[in-house]
Amino acid sequence: MMESGEEFYVTNPRRAPRYGRFMLFGAALGAIVGLLIIQFGPAAGSFAIGDVAAAMLLLTVPVGLFFGALIALLIDRRSLKKSGPVD
User: Fold this and answer.
1) pLDDT in tens, 10-23
2) Are 69 and 23 in contact (CB under 8 A)?
3) CB 25, CB 70: distance < 8 Å
4) Cβ count within 10 A of residue 85
5) How far apart are CA 25 and CA 16, in angstroms?
């Protein structure tokens, strides 16, 4: 039973992605791709893995971070479209 002074609100919670987890996953995937490029790429065997690993990881990890954040942002935008005002 509601008293006359109480207000009743209906909310529609929105499930937003956790950006940090997406970015961490993207960085790990970028590191794996970088290591695979070093191991099986066109210049595989020409250089020692240790010589090229740091340079390759400096390129692929930030790219993975970017794509992880981009995917999280797209999922967040989609969740905003799905959660509309409640009538």
Assistant:
1) 776 767 788 999 99
2) yes
3) no
4) 5
5) 17
Q: What are the domain boundaries of the chain?
A: 19-80
Q: From CA 23, how far away is CA 64, in angstroms rounded? A: 7
Write down how long the chain is. Answer: 87
Q: Give 58-61's long-range contacts (Cβ < 8 A, gap of 24+).
A: 59/34, 60/30, 60/31, 60/33, 60/34, 61/27, 61/30, 61/31, 61/34
The Cα–Cα gap between 86 and 52 comes to 55
- Residue 25 parent element (H or E): helix 19-40
Residues 17-71: pLDDT tens digits?
A: 889 999 999 999 999 999 888 888 877 777 777 778 888 889 999 999 999 999 9
Q: What residue type is assigned to position 25 of the chain?
A: F
